[in-house]
Structure formats: C-alpha cells, structure tokens
Specification:
mainly alpha; Arc Repressor Mutant
C-alpha cells in the first residue's frame, strides 16, 4: 500500500481521531473508509440518487414528457411582457 501525507483542517482531523478511538480503528482505516464511501457515491447514477423521491408527489401527471404541450403553456421559457 502506498503512503501519502495530507493536511486536514483541525475540525476534520479531530473528528477522524475521535471516530478512530471510538471504533478502535487506525486513523488510516477511517480515512480509507471515507474515501471509498465517497467513491461509491460518485459512481451511483442520477436515478439511484433520487429513487426515494420517485412517485412521492400525488396528483401529478404520470409522464410529463408524453404531454409536454399540455403541461407547459405556450411561451414557456420566454420573458413575460406585461
């Protein structure tokens, strides 16, 4: 395994030290877990990230793209001249 040195803001370093003591793991293990967790999150697709929201609004159209002219009024996206 390769060794690197990084500088962390004091609050983050203190948080890692506290977690290390609490879980009885090395600080390196904590940092590795956090990096791996971040990488897994980055690899998730957009649908995975919002999947808990799908279907959460009642009464809306089931598929907006099928009836876009009906739902998006004429002039949508243009400045209003009132």
């Amino acid at each position: 395994m390769k060794t690197i040195t990084i500088r962390l803001p004091e609050p983050i370093a203190a948080e890692i030290e506290a977690e290390s003591r609490e879980r009885k793991l090395s600080k390196s293990d904590i940092v590795r877990e956090r990096i791996e967790s971040t990488e897994r999150t980055k690899r998730r697709g957009a649908l995975d990230l919002i999947s808990d929201l799908v279907g959460s609004i009642k009464g809306g159209p089931s598929d907006l793209s099928a009836n876009k002219k009906r739902y998006l009024r004429k002039g949508y996206g243009r400045k209003s001249h009132r």
